[in-house]
């Protein structure tokens, strides 16, 4: 941004009271309140997602937000790109509230956000947070003015802001300035390092400018997204070192299917294990016709497998080999996973703590009994040529042996009985 390119003095860092997670101290950031959800300040890492509906389609957007929320998304972002979508936001929030869904809705703005929020004050009020991109908030002389307008609107409506720089929409004037400065160095950096610095500076300079305008640091979240795994790790390590702002993690344009999942998890897992990151989004391209909720499930499983949070009972399952020529153990693992995920919205309210339960569905005698003993509830199914019986272990002790055609139903019933016996009903 013009007038914002001098390296700013660092803001005061919050008191270092690290929260241990997965053996790694969390980076303590300014706490940011988004509706009833806290980001940073030692709070658990928050899962968020984004709709891909036309926001002006109120019914369609409400339906998708509800699906994402039921899957476990704690924040949901919607595109606000024209007057119709801005006018729809309050109606979307109202309809969600009528359904008992109070998930904070974030407005994603580019180019014309200052106009939309000014012209639709009900939208400005209904949104829980604004997301703005310093690379396309405005161009030329209008850039600083329009950025300031957005920040002033956030101050007026008491809203937090995510300042989200992106590799694909980098502030070109800042990039050009840093390239010129680099050319004058005795030992110039390579072009990638300069562009990475431009991305970081775009986010940091904009955040410091927002603070100068009057937005508290406790209402600022930063992101600096790229599409490469190693680049993302390098950018966020540097961003975390240079500022105390809460950070939103995500690999932009991660891709479709396993490629997007693997790339996102490869990058975010490293950062999360280093204590970096206050909220995450897995930016998957859905398979044609597939549910948008997959990105939520992947985010939850990433946080749970790294030991940072628990969302649903974890199922350890045998991968299968020549000893397990029957598909029954695969079918049972799927039944168990779908059962506990389906029950979790109810258990979250009536059986708090059930999300920490561990389950094992194993396919033969080699590792089956051992893995089953490590789980709260485990079953060791017979492999090829083994006796047609399935011992069940509860908290390390063998309790019953299942046989016959109804093993799946019987095992699921044992899981439900365990939850009823071990997790007390909440006051609600």
Key attributes of the depicted protein:
428 residues, alpha/beta, Sulfite Reductase Hemoprotein, domain 1, 2 domains, eight-stranded parallel barrel, 13 helices, 19 strands, 43% helix, elongated, disordered N terminus, EC 1.17.7.3
Explain this structure:
Keywords: 4Fe-4S, Iron, Iron-sulfur, Isoprene biosynthesis, Metal-binding, Oxidoreductase. With about 425 residues, this protein is α/β, with parallel strands linked by helices. It has two domains: about 30-305, Dihydropteroate synthase-like (TIM Barrel, Alpha-Beta Barrel), CATH 3.20.20.20; about 315-425, Sulfite Reductase Hemoprotein, domain 1. About 45% of the residues lie in helices and about 20% in strands. The protein contains 13 helices and 19 strands. Helix 8 links the parallel strand 10 (about 220-225) and strand 11. Helix 8 (about 230-240) packs parallel to helix 9 (about 255-275).
- Give the amount of beta strand, in percent: 15-25%
**Judging by the overall fold, what is the CATH architecture of the largest domain?**
Alpha-Beta Barrel
CATH fold naming of the largest domain: TIM Barrel
Let me know the largest β-sheet: 8 strands, parallel, barrel
- The order of strands across the largest sheet is 5-6-7-8-9-10-11-13
Residue stretches low in confidence (pLDDT < 50, at least 5 long) are 2-10, 15-23
What is the typical, i.e. mean, pLDDT? 92
Q: Rounded to an integer, what's the Rg over CA atoms? A: 24 Å
Q: What gross morphology would you assign?
A: elongated
What is the helical fraction, as a range of percent? 40-55%
Number of domains: 2
CATH class of the largest domain: Alpha Beta
The total count of strands amounts to 19
Distance between the termini: 50 Å
Pfam families: GcpE (PF04551), GcpE_C (PF26540)
Domain IspG C-terminal: 315-416
Binding site for [4Fe-4S] cluster: 318, 321, 364, 371
Keywords: 4Fe-4S, Iron, Iron-sulfur, Isoprene biosynthesis, Metal-binding, Oxidoreductase
């Amino acid at each position: 941004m013009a007038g914002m390119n001098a390296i700013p003095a660092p803001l005061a860092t919050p008191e270092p009271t690290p929260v241990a997670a997965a053996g790694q101290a969390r980076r303590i950031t300014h706490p940011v309140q988004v509706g009833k959800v806290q980001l940073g300040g030692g709070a658990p890492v928050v899962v968020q997602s984004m709709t891909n509906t036309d926001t002006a389609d109120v019914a369609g957007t409400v339906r998708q937000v509800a699906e994402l929320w039921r899957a476990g998304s704690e924040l949901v972002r919607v595109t606000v790109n024209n007057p119709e979508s801005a006018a729809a936001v309050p109606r979307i929030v109202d309809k969600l509230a009528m359904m008992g869904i109070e998930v904070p809705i974030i407005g994603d703005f580019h180019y014309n956000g200052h106009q939309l929020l000014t012209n639709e004050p009900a939208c400005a009020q209904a949104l829980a947070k604004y997301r703005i991109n310093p690379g396309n908030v405005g161009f030329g002389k209008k850039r600083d003015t329009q950025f300031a307008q957005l920040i002033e609107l956030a101050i007026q409506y008491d809203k937090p802001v995510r300042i989200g720089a992106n590799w694909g929409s980098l502030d070109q004037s800042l990039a050009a300035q840093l390239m010129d400065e680099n050319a004058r160095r005795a030992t110039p950096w390579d072009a990638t390092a300069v562009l990475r610095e431009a991305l970081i500076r775009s986010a940091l300079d904009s955040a410091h400018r927002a603070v100068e305008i009057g937005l508290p640091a406790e209402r600022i979240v930063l992101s600096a997204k790229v599409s490469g795994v190693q680049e993302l790790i390098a950018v966020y390590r540097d961003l975390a070192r240079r500022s105390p702002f809460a950070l939103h993690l995500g690999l932009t344009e991660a891709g479709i299917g396993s490629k997007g999942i693997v790339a996102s998890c490869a990058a975010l897992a490293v950062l999360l294990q280093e204590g970096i990151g206050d909220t995450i989004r897995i930016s998957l391209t859905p398979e044609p016709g597939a549910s948008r909720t997959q990105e939520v499930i992947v985010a939850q499983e990433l946080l749970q497998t790294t030991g940072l949070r628990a969302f649903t009972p974890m199922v350890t399952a045998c991968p299968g080999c020549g000893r397990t020529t029957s598909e029954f153990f695969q079918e049972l693992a799927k039944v168990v996973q779908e059962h506990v995920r389906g029950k979790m919205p109810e258990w979250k309210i009536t059986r708090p703590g059930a999300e920490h339960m561990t389950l094992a569905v194993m396919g033969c005698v080699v590792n089956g009994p051992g893995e089953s003993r490590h789980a709260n509830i485990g079953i060791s199914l017979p492999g090829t040529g083994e006796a047609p019986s399935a011992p069940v272990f509860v908290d390390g002790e063998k309790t019953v042996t299942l046989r016959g055609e109804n093993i799946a139903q019987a095992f699921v019933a044992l899981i439900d009985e365990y939850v009823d016996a071990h997790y007390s009903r909440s006051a609600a």
